[in-house]
Amino acid sequence: MDALLFMIFAAIAVICGINLVVQTHPISSALSLVGVMGALAALYLLLGGEFIAAAQLVVYAGAIMVLFVFVIMLLNAGTEKKMTVRPLGKYLGAPFLLLFFGMIAYVIQKILPSSSPVVFGAFHGGTALEIGRSLFTVYLLPFEVTSVLILIAILGAIVLARKEVD
Amino acid sequence: MPLGPLPAAVPPSWYLTLSAILFALGVLGFLLRRNIITVFMSIELMLNAVNLSFVTFSYVLKRADGHIFSFFVMVVAAAEAAVGLAIILTVFKNRQTLEIDEVSSLKN
Amino acid sequence: MNFYLLSLIKTAIVVGIFMHVLAYLQWIERKVIAHVQLRVGPRRVGPHGLLQPLADVIKLVTKEDILPSHVNKVFYFMAPFIAVTFALISISIIPFGPEITIAGVRTNMGLTDLNIGVLFILGISGLGVYGVALAGWASNNKYALMGGLRSSAQMISYELPMALALAAPLLILNTLSLREIANGQAGYYWGFIPRWAIFQMPFPQIFSFILFLIAGFAETNRVPFDLPEAENELVAGFHVEYASMKFASFFMAEYANMVTVSCIATLLFLGGWHPIFPEKYGSGLIPVLIFAASAVLCFFHAANPARPFDRITLPVFGVLFLGLGGLFLLPPVQFILLPLFWFSAKVLIILFVFIWVRATLPRFRYDQLMRFAWTFMFPVALVNLFITALLVALFP
User: Fold this and answer.
1) C73-97 pLDDT, tens digit each
2) Partner-chain residue, chosen from A38, A41, A70, that has the shortest CB–CB distance to C152
3) ipTM (interface pTM)
4) Hey, which residues 29-48 in chain B have their CB within 8 Å of chain A?
């Protein structure tokens, strides 16, 4: 069951990811990204990260991507022109990608013994209670600093997007 | 990776491989696409891929720290999206284009 | 009993009832608005128009499904599907009553219970906006696009005060699971004031309740926040290009969202299925009294009929109400019906407020809507959350 669920959501994530890259219209890409995020939320649940799964839905899929869709609709951005790929990228891109994959796969297999499979319910550290406890004890300072970061971001966004006042 | 009938549960390395695939797709989109918004979304895809590996490592180590890191990544992504989209709006207002190659007046 | 079989049975029951509630909510809305405006409302199809929803469904299904030539086909078909899916999912985690035992099977009333229930609801309601936004964009029509844009901006803006308003009672009740939230509001102060969140010490959540309801109106695109479909400026907004079942999907999504918001408000603020005063003072007799009073009213109007048909139809309803009231006196079904009664009574009262407001208030202007969200709702919700947190910390 766990493997089946993993396969389904991994397939959704990969298909949506490929769709993001190949679609020419930004709104199709945006919706594919929402699909990736939804699939990842389900995978987080399998890994025992229930809070992070909910945060993924609320913050990423429900807020950030709505903002993207809003901006795409507002600018009424049309489809993209055919991209021009330089010969360097054309001939070296695929080998380098394969090399990158090979390295990643090698490192993963090397450092992670694949003896203990991921079983749903084996890890209970991802509940809202545990996350909250960590956030407000061990990670208190970074947590408070992010609030300053967000404040700066809000101010920046307002200054950038404001109409020029003479 | 052993091939054959599907096991009852998959090892964590499969999750990490998925994360690598998604990250590579993000890099691909970032390099190949020419629309600023799509490039931006590719960055978000990469961040998501990294989040997946954070959560997987959290499972492997049986500690919640990975979740905290992905939470912070989400917060940073939200801040980044707000500022980035504001910049995109301003660029579009000034140049009426979203092609990334045409926004190059600082070049040369 | 087998887990899958039990889930299947519960799903069938909940879906069946939920679909009827959605269909009849529209009948109730038309009737209530009609009576507010001193009209009669639908009464041609069936006695008192009770078969009107059926007629509407038949009409909507058999209507010609127009596909405009200028739409983006994929997203045009996807949008109503997304809207209705995310509107219906939320009902799966709503608990309707306590844990009960029927024929030796212990089960919860309600489909399932997540320990991140409140976050799940917030996430799903955030995803619902894609249906409206996509519909507006895919229709390739300036009015629809305006509706979609307005909707996404409005939903992002009002999600913030909504989440802040939800967070305040969670501080007091200390859990995210909807079932435990409802259980945390059982019991009474001094034996008669219910420990519902809107009364619960150390800080009664009455302000969060009002804020949540206002934000809920905005999230469901209801009057006075129905800017996305404002018919006198945007024709019909985001669903102007939709016909037949696709239009009905948006309609159904709106009503399903309304029911969900009412259920959440009931669970988080009004104590879920817990009665308003203790059992020992006879709160179990309230439904019997209400149904008996309705029956008496029916018999009285049957004796003095305003319309010729009332002489036949009203006694039937009177007997029906008497039978329903009698059911509440039977011990074997009482323990199921009483929590259900209290839960649905509270939900129906909130739904009535939704309809009442629609019949009463004019629509906001767009700049007023945004200013209201950011300069009134948001600061008030923040202050409310802060005071709640402070008092919870001081008087644990």
Assistant:
1) 788 888 888 888 888 888 888 888 7
2) A70
3) 0.84
4) 29, 31-35, 37-38, 40-42, 44-45, 48
